[in-house]
Design a protein that fits this description.
349 residues, 12 helices, 11 strands, 33% helix, binds iron/sulfur cluster
Length: 349
């Protein structure tokens, strides 16, 4: 990895150098009555709108790669012939300016399923291929447990990563495109003092976590506690609304629907993101539902994240961003659910 130092006053030059791409970054979306700012990722035209000091975003960057609804194909029929049109919906090269480590790690996990698996998703892959990512360091929020999930730092999946070290950004450079861009942005090589500032920033971040999950032996504990009473308790609280999957940067379950024109001359196939917490998620033709109770669905989501995915890819599908717990109207959080299962395994639930 190559390291550079970029003076903060040169950040706009970097932003301007990306003008051939559609720039997406964190912006202020709304304010709560108590003044708390809500941030979201959105297309940005003006450098002044970029909020690199954002806390977190309600929705993750996933929505740009796996939109909530996406047309997969359209069909037109004429006489005895028909034509299928497929568009991967990746129109303009995109630059993400200011993605936190957890969200870059989340995309790296989605890649394993959406690109590297036996059945890749070409729509997702096309958008990923044309994306340039600038990461930015963050300050741990009360709901963040990314450190417990090994997602507080990131080693790949970005073009450059900026760490605020005072008057400058310490820049990790990963791609040739990032290197070329930085040539015109007025960078310098880091000194040992810059290295020390970078290390200090990392130590401050480590010390800033107030939320954590003990993931030691978690897959084994989940196997032992599959029938535990505690799942029934969480199931009673769960509203089966699917909000947790909606805001989660790594949930990717989806359904496909087809719509046929009334005159039978055209049709459309559309993908909808879905949630395994929704009541009909495991319902099959004939009406049988394999997971009719809310606790079985909630449990399934946890087992997919923290057991099944670990078995397949040697890492959890949760990056510890805390979004699901913040958004859940029933107050169900990953740290509390996992702590309760651990307590049950210890016999003191
Ligand atoms: S855990 Fe919370 S957000 Fe998720 S489905 Fe249940 S009530 Fe909704
Ligand atoms: S399960 Fe919750 S904490 Fe984990 S990645 Fe998804 S939204 Fe973030």
């Amino acid at each position: 990895m190559l390291f550079k130092v970029l003076p903060k006053y040169r950040l706009q030059a970097l932003f301007d150098a990306l003008s051939s791409r559609r720039i997406i970054g964190p912006v202020e979306k709304a304010r709560r009555p108590d003044g708390e700012v809500l941030y979201g990722f959105d297309a940005i035209c003006r450098f002044e709108d970029l909020r690199l000091d954002y806390t977190t975003t309600t929705h993750s960057p996933k929505k740009f790669f796996l939109p909530h609804r996406e047309v997969l194909a359209t069909f037109s029929l004429s006489g005895t012939t028909w034509e299928k049109m497929v568009d991967d919906n990746a129109y303009l090269p995109v630059a993400f300016f200011g993605m936190h480590a957890c969200d870059i790690n989340a995309l790296n996990k989605l890649d394993k399923v959406m690109i590297d698996s036996s059945y890749p998703n070409p729509y997702y892959a096309a958008k990923r291929r044309s994306t340039f990512i600038i990461g930015i360091d963050c300050v741990p929020q009360p709901q963040c447990f990314c450190r417990s999930m090994g997602a507080d730092t990131v080693l790949h999946g970005f073009d450059m990563f900026l760490t605020d070290i005072g008057g400058d950004y310490f820049v990790e450079v990963q791609s040739a495109e990032a290197y070329e861009l930085l040539k015109g942005a007025g960078t310098r090589d880091p000194s040992s003092h810059d290295h020390a500032l970078f290390m200090k920033k990392g130590d401050m971040k480590k010390a800033g976590f107030s939320c954590q999950v003990d993931a030691t032996d978690l897959t084994k504990i989940l196997d032992m506690e599959f029938q535990a009473e505690v799942w029934l308790d969480w199931g009673k609280k769960c509203l089966s609304c699917g909000t947790c999957a909606n805001v989660c940067p790594t949930c990717y379950c989806y359904g496909v629907q087809e719509y046929v024109d009334l005159d039978l001359r055209g049709a459309l196939k559309e993908m909808h993101l879905y949630s395994c917490n929704l009541i009909d998620f495991a319902e099959v033709a004939g009406g049988h539902n394999f997971r009719p109770e809310s606790h079985t669905r909630l449990k399934y989501r946890f087992y997919h994240k923290h057991r099944g995915f670990v078995e397949a890819f040697e890492a959890s599908l949760c990056v510890g961003c805390g979004r699901c717990g913040t958004a859940c109207l029933a107050g169900i959080t990953v740290p509390e659910v996992i702590a309760s299962v651990r307590r049950e395994a210890q016999g003191d639930a």
